[in-house]
Design goal:
The chain is an alpha/beta fold and 338 residues long. Helices cover 42% and strands 23% of the residues. It is built from 13 helices and twelve strands. The chain has an eight-stranded parallel β-sheet with strand order 11-10-9-8-7-6-5-12.
Length: 338
């Protein structure tokens, strides 16, 4: 089939800087794209790269879009190279949007699938992202009131002694039954990772602290995979890979090297949704689906994948709305301009 193709880049300012071990992030940039098939059906997609996380740059994504003809085909969509994972996700998501799901199907089957998907989407638990540093102590309560029971807190941003002190305050402030994730973005040394894991293991043994440390996310840099594998076998506190499994190639590589722990999957940059489905179904991996601070267009596609592929009822990392102004009017205007 052939599709009319249009695209438009966007910029979206964070309400406050997002601070991680990678630095400060102030503006989210991406590309909205639209496919129109021969019958007039529309498909919306989004390319939301994070180059410092492992995807292509925005410039490379724009170059790819600019060199495409105004009319493209299925063959073009499904032959986007692996060096452009965010483009793979954006175009294939738009193709699925237009077709009503993960491939063509009868109307009754599509209706049943949509009903099941809607139910799954509404039942997904969400994890709320706390600001780094002491600000977390003042922000968790607002998110709790919004219904979040799992939180993620960025570590490896400030001196470890300061963060451990804040952590001590946080775990005694959060309500019982809270789950807390610690995300280092690959910013800890081997010694620091051991200290955090030891601290969390000791916490598990302390009956006076009723919250659960669910996992430490990406404690070491990507190139220190073997050390993370060793750490995962040395402590009770779980480790989740994130930067190490940013793309499908990395995901498969870590699995082949023996990782059987948690995989944090960011659909917006991982690559082809159809190939991601195949991998997850084949290996039944323990997944946490997570946002790349996309708009509602990519978020809907990502949440559909999360509803379909999540195991072990882990909260998904899409509790990020409080980092932006309401997007409805802005996004509608952007789409209308295409």
């Amino acid at each position: 089939m052939r599709y009319q193709f249009k695209f438009r880049p966007y910029q979206r300012k964070f309400l406050r800087s997002l601070t991680t071990n990678h630095g400060k992030w102030d503006i989210r940039e991406g590309i909205i794209l639209r496919l129109t098939d021969e019958s007039g059906k529309l498909g919306w997609g989004e390319i939301a790269p994070i180059s410092w996380f492992g995807s292509e740059t925005l410039e490379k994504a724009l170059d790819f879009c600019r060199q495409l003809p105004k009319e493209i085909t299925d063959e073009i969509i499904f032959s986007i190279p692996d060096e452009l994972p965010a483009c793979q996700f954006g175009f294939e998501s738009a193709w699925e949007w237009r077709s009503g799901g993960a491939g063509e199907q009868g109307s009754r089957g599509a209706e049943e699938k949509n009903l099941n998907l809607s139910s799954a989407l509404h039942s997904l638990p969400y994890s709320g992202l706390l600001p780094s540093g002491e600000a977390a102590l003042n922000q968790w309560e607002k998110l709790w009131q919004q219904g979040y029971r799992t939180f993620k807190w960025k570590i490896a941003v400030d001196a470890i002694a300061d963060e451990l002190e804040i952590f001590e305050s946080l775990i005694h402030t959060l309500p019982a039954s809270t789950k807390l994730r610690l995300d280092a973005n690959g910013g800890l040394s081997y010694e620091e990772a051991n200290l955090w894991l030891r601290t969390c293991d000791n916490l598990k043994a302390n009956a006076e602290v009723p919250i659960e440390i669910e996992f430490i996310e990406q404690p070491l840099p990507v190139e220190q995979f073997q050390q993370m594998l060793e750490l995962s076998m040395s402590y009770e506190t779980a480790i989740a890979l994130d930067e190490s499994v940013a793309t499908l190639g990395q995901l498969a590589g870590c699995y082949q090297q023996g990782w059987r722990g948690i995989f944090v999957i960011k659909p917006g940059i991982v690559g082809s949704p159809s190939r991601l489905r195949k991998f997850c179904h084949q290996y039944e991996v323990d997944t946490v689906f997570s946002s790349v601070f996309e708009t509602a267009i990519a978020r809907l596609a990502a949440l559909k994948l999360a509803a379909e592929l999540s195991r072990n009822n882990r909260a998904i990392g899409f509790g990020i709305d409080h980092f932006f102004e309401q997007e409805d009017t802005w996004l509608q205007s952007l789409c209308n301009s295409l």
